[in-house]
Amino acid sequence: AQSVSQHNHHVILSEAASLELGCNYSYGGTVNLFWYVQYPGQHLQLLLKYFSGDPLVKGIKGFEAEFIKSKFSFNLRKPSVQWSDTAEYFCAVNALTSSGTYKYIFGTGTRLKVLA
Amino acid sequence: DGGITQSPKYLFRKEGQNVTLSCEQNLNHDAMYWYRQDPGQGLRLIYYSQIVNDFQKGDIAEGYSVSREKKESFPLTVTSAQKNPTAFYLCASRTTVAGNTIYFGEGSWLTVV
Question: In this predicted model, which residue has the larger pLDDT, A95 or B6?
Answer without folding.
Answer: B6
